[in-house]
């Protein structure tokens, strides 16, 4: 087996994609984003960055809204519900950006759905450039398409930015 492919290798990965589900941001709360969790994530990401590891983050929205659940429970049009879910990920991404920057980690938020006043549009080459400059890029609004989830977005962005591994954080409880 090629040692560089072993999950137990001792040298750090050069570039990782962290998938943070909305639930992972809940912490002790029933709804929303727990500032304690954001501070914890910021500290962890900073220590990983200090090892020289490039970091991209895809953030979920299930702590606020899940399209499929809402559509099933209320009869809401599924695509509309999914767009609301994607907007939820943008809110989480901005909260995460705030926490990371207060923890001393430079960041950019890139979105799959244009919202120019608050986040950059996702442009793959620009995302890679940010990462090369040492910024943590937070990818929001998933793939930009209804009927998908942020897990798909995590896999997609990981390949697009050349991450070696996807680390999936489902919950911090
Ligand atoms: N979503 C979507 N397309 C995507 C990513 C997300 O429509 O590419 C919507 C979908 O409704 C989903 C919601 O956004 O339920 C929140 O994302 P997800 O459920 O993946 O969040 P997580 O479970 O990771 O918190």
How are the secondary structure elements laid out?
Elements: E1 15-20, H1 22-26, H2 35-50, E2 54-59, H3 67-74, H4 78-102, E3 107-111, E4 120-121, H5 124-132, E5 136-140, H6 150-161, E6 165-169
Parallel strand pairs: 1-2, 1-6, 2-5, 3-4, 3-5
The protein binds uridine-5'-diphosphate (UDP).
Describe the structure using short key phrases.
173 residues, alpha/beta, 6-stranded parallel beta sheet, 6 helices, 43% helix, binds uridine-5'-diphosphate
Concise synopsis of the structure shown:
By secondary structure, this protein is α/β, with parallel strands linked by helices. It has 6 helices and 6 strands, in the order βααβααββαβαβ. A 6-stranded parallel beta sheet has the order 4-3-5-2-1-6, sandwiched between helices.
Uncertain segments are none
Proportion of β residues?
Answer: 15-25%
What are the distinct ligands in this entry? uridine-5'-diphosphate
Number of strands: 6
Treating each run of at least 4 consecutive H or I residues as one helix, how many helices?
6
Portion of residues within helices: 40-55%
Shape: globular
> How many strands, which pairing sense, and closed or not: the largest β-sheet?
6 strands, parallel
Structural class: alpha/beta
């Amino acid at each position: 087996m090629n040692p560089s492919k072993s999950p137990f290798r001792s040298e750090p990965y050069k570039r990782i994609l962290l998938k943070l589900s909305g639930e992972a941001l809940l912490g002790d709360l029933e709804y929303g984003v727990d500032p304690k969790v954001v501070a914890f994530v910021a500290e962890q990401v900073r220590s990983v960055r200090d090892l020289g590891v490039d970091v991209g983050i895809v953030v979920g929205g299930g702590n606020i809204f899940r399209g499929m659940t809402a559509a099933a429970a209320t009869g809401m049009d599924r695509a509309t519900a999914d767009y609301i879910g994607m907007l939820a990920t943008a809110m989480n991404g901005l909260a995460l950006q705030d926490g990371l920057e207060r923890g001393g980690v430079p960041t950019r938020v890139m979105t799959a759905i244009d919202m120019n006043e608050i986040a950059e549009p996702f442009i793959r080459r620009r995302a890679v450039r940010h990462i090369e400059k040492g910024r943590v890029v937070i990818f929001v609004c998933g793939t930009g398409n209804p009927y998908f989830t942020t897990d798909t977005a995590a896999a997609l962005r990981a390949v697009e930015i050349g991450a070696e591994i996807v680390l999936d954080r489902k919950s911090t409880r």
